[in-house]
């Protein structure tokens, strides 16, 4: 069939247009079908699901581990439709005026009941929190050591685990170890 087109005397421009249409179709297929599944973590799919989860529990403190995610707090602010003026009010006018030249940056931030920062095991295991992390952030052995109860898991668009959600149990943590003299455990046990 290709020889037939050549014998018809179709010009070079037609071949170029046909080639460009073919390449464009392949690119569109790649971007519209394949990238949706392969790069779902890049466009924050898991944080959209996490935002829905956090809307259902507005009163409990949530710690979202950002050790490997950097400035992922912006995804939560976007998907939770966090008020931009309230968000910017955390920074003084001098900082905002010099925004693009400001070299100090902290990816740790608090938005209502959501605290985006690395998990501090010496503090967080002794407080009633919900901990959210990627699969590398909280291992099964850490969950067992700190008496964490797995309450959920958020997968990427392909169903692979992207975030794990745990609830701390400070009472069980304190009762299991011989740190009852520790001030952290005295506070926890006095509340129960």
Topology:
Elements: H1 2-7, H2 12-38, H3 45-55, E1 62-64, H4 73-79, H5 84-88, H6 93-97, E2 109-111, E3 114-116, H7 121-124, E4 130-133, H8 140-145, E5 149-155, E6 161-167, H9 170-176, H10 183-191
Parallel strand pairs: 1-3, 1-4
Antiparallel strand pairs: 2-3, 4-6, 5-6
Task: Write a structural description.
There is one protein chain. The protein is of the alpha/beta class. The chain has helices at residues 2-7, 12-38, 45-55, 73-79, 84-88, 93-97, 121-124, 140-145, 170-176, 183-191, and strands at 62-64, 109-111, 114-116, 130-133, 149-155, 161-167. A hairpin with a 2-residue loop joins strand 2 (109-111) and strand 3 (114-116). The chain is elongated.
């Amino acid at each position: 069939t290709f020889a037939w087109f050549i014998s018809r005397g179709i010009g070079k421009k037609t071949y170029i247009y046909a080639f460009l249409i073919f390449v464009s179709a392949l690119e569109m297929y790649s971007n519209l079908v394949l990238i949706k599944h392969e790069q779902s973590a890049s466009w924050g799919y898991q944080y959209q699901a996490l935002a829905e989860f956090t809307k259902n529990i507005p009163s409990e403190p949530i710690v979202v581990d950002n050790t490997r995610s950097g400035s992922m707090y912006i995804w939560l602010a976007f998907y939770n439709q966090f008020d931009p003026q309230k968000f910017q009010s955390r920074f003084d006018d001098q900082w905002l005026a010099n925004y693009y030249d400001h070299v100090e940056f902290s990816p740790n931030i608090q938005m209502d009941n959501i605290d985006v920062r690395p998990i501090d095991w010496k503090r967080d295991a002794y407080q009633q929190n919900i901990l959210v992390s990627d699969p590398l952030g909280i291992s099964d052995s850490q969950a067992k050591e700190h008496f964490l109860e797995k309450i959920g898991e958020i997968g990427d668009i392909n169903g692979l685990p992207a975030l794990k959600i745990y609830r701390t149990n400070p009472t069980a943590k304190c009762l299991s170890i011989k740190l009852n003299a520790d001030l952290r455990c005295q506070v926890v046990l006095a509340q129960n």
